[in-house]
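Appendix B, Record 12. Input sequence as logged:
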Amino acid sequence: MSVAAILAESAARGPRRTALVTEDEEVSYGDLWQRALRAAGTLKARGVRPGDAVTVMLENTPDLPVACFAIWAAGATVVPVATSARPAEVEYTLTDSGSVLLICAEALIAEAGQAARAARVPALTEVELVGTAPPLNTYEPRRPDDIAIILYTSGTTGRPKGAMLTHLNVTMNIMVTRVSPFDVTADDVLLGALPLYHSFGLICGLGTCLLAGASVVLMRRFDAARALDLIEKHGCTLFMGVPTMFTTMLAAMAPGDAGRYRLDRVFSGGAPLHVATLEAIRAAFGCEVYEGYGLTEASPCVAYNQKWWPTKPGTVGRPIWGVDVRVADADRADTVAFVPDGEVGEIVVRGHNIMAGYLNLPEATAGTVVDGWLRTGDLGRFDEDGYLTIVDRKKDVILRGGHNVYPREIEEVLSRHSAVRQVAVVGLPDDRLGEEVCAAVVVRDGFSAGPELAAELVALARDRLAGYKCPRRVEFLPSFPLGGGGKVLKRELAVHLA
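Logged structural output:
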């Protein structure tokens, strides 16, 4: 078994089919696989052996898929790192993962090379990767439990942890989600706007398309106006993104653009999608919008709405095939104790998608995978039809005067106001109540931020929510701090507002 087989077999079935499209070139499946085999030959000549870790720091260009599939073809482990990572972060990743090589974009080699030298790891640019060494004839076979990829978590509560995903984890997640929920076929064209150093973009986006023989239009970096142009130019049928991408794309549309940019289906993940935003996307692109749920430690897909049953906005659908999802007592750390359907608890997952563990962190692994279940740190509940609703992150729950306040519930209400482009609710320290509820808002163009709008938002919350849930403070910001995958960094936002 090897993740490399996904590209190898698609190249064998349709070598002339278009795999990747960029501003500069179109790359066929046959060419992409041959580039990967040549690059794998370079890695072998450089001493990379099966089981070695290789860190990849490349932009959304064909070089990144080439590098990943070359590493897998050589039997090694891919360690992606964001192109925005600072030298200290790159050095940490190289050292912690035990990488034997850094493959880095030529434009980033000055700073990244400094980190590689500090970690005593050789660096190679994408230009040097496809070198003159003899190419491999095929890929190295791997065992299902061999590590295919190490993805580092954001590290919001400490140093990043390397989640180890096996070849079985990644291959099964691609094979299952290609059929359901994504239903990708060879006729699809995906707008590849998600960063490929994240599991959503690499596994759910690129992986499912390469398995299906579909085409991926790669964006070097996301830009809302450019994304709309590419959808129209290339006749994209499929879009996968995070909510911040959708809000900026909607804001970039002109008043007369309704119906101009057509998609067949849209999938949202990575962060909660407010129902108001979902409805706006549906109207703008003339297609169904499916929200789902996943996390790095689950390879990443866990549950999704999909066309095979009625969509329920506000939920993340039902578990994907082969994955068991339950809700457990969030206060029991020593064991997994299930709660009845309808009650809120911590979402726990088991199945073919669960990571092998955190690299070199047995205690952290034991605290996360309990009784065979992955404790996600997310709070949710199941309804009577088996649909899962994400209530909030366990760590984001606001404790106000003895009450649990779930930010997402407040965000759903405030996002309905016509002036609100984006909203994030956080808890701020309060001497009397422990924490107080604060709503941070990015205002739409044409609206004025100020006391009058703040009062309207508070009144809207009071009309829809219990008094203890209503924000006592509203702050207007030009934008929110975002992580590499487009998630709002709520802890950074709270520090800024405190």
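The first strand starts at residue 18 and ends at 21.
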